[in-house]
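For reproducibility, we list the full input for the zinc ion complex.
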Amino acid sequence: MDLVIEGRAWYKGRLQHVCIGVQDGLIASVKKSLKAERHLDYNDRIILPGAIDVHTHMREPGMTHKEDFATGTTSAAFGGVTCVFDMPNTRPPTIMREDVLEKKEMAAKKAWVDFGLFGGVSDSSNPQRIMDSVIGFKIFMSSTTGSVLLAEDKDIRRALDLIQPTKKVVSVHAEDEHLLLKRQDAGLVQHGESRPPLAEASAISRLADRSKGMAINICHVTSQEGLGALAGGSFTSEATPHHLLLNVTSCTRKGFCKVNPPLRRKEDQEALMAAFADGRIDMLASDHAPHTTDEKERDFDQVPSGVPGVETSFPLMMAQVRKGAISLERLVSAACARPAEVFGLRKGLIEVGRDADLMVLDPRQVGVVSGRRLHSKCGWTLFEGHEAIFPQAVFLRGQLLVEDGGLVGERMGRDVVARRRIPT
Ligand code: DOR
Ligand code: ZN
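The corresponding predicted structure, in tokenized form, follows.
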């Protein structure tokens, strides 16, 4: 055994004081007592599986003034995220094989945490050509920042027909393009009206028929209407911290709050939190979509949509656990176990045979989010001053990655696709 990590770990569905034995980057044993050359005793601090963020925009290649794989994955690591999935709307988008492979090389050189790349789909591309290299496919049913649009049923049907035999997950940006108002929005409320909850519900409903035979995942659900439509199919789903914790009234930073789908009314925010708390939403995903301060300060209709969040996602929700708004069980499920299960990774649980991706935190150490102290290149957050519980130590495959507020160890992030477990 290389290393033993001891503390109050989330093991078999509850917190238990155990020793986690690590060998060759994997969890080799979990026992009350274990011996090894190196023994790290975290006493009564909490040890959780590293979080898996299944929805981030790392911006490389083509928009590296906003983020790149080095800064984006550093930001992830400090937030307890040991694996990120990157979306295809880069420049070029990852639709063609060469572009996927090229992005993979860039990520492998720079990533501090493990990663998977989503493949994009256009009306003429063949997703099967890239199926071996991607963690899943992304379909944008509406236009948004730099997306390749599939708005028509015939194009969506064609894409799903080609993806179905690959057995990969298809994550969908579900806003119905035909129900969006094409106008110049003067502010946040108008933006929300231009992209109404009904557009979300309609897009989800259009996929319900197909959801039984394949793995369709609905990204960033926001509204009561959207939750209703989800129940009409057999989907998995994501919610973001910004839709769970903010609403169109509480977010006062104008263009900085502009995101697609938009922030909703307080009633929707509360309904979404209730759905997250009772397990109707499968996964917590940040939709980390950094843009620069200059870009976010433009006239509202010129502001690109998207907010950063990979570093604050888990810590903000951990503070919600402490407040009693959600259970620790639900958070660990949504941030770690379910993402691993849905995408077939041997991560996300403290269990023999899984990657030793772990975070250590002290639930009594409640801090506040400060944009200055975050690690994304964009340098700002919507959650300034919000309570958050950041991890004090983070391990990637048994290697210490974050300790005492600093990045330590080697850069060893790698592609998870090659090591994926075949879903049963
Ligand atoms: O607000 C958004 N920003 N929504 C998206 O779907 C894309 C994202 C981005 O890439 O900036
Ligand atoms: Zn996104």
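The pocket of zinc ion (ligand 2) is lined by residues 55, 57, 87, 287, 289 (CB under 6 Å). The chain has eleven helices and 18 strands. Both points were considered when choosing residues for closer inspection.
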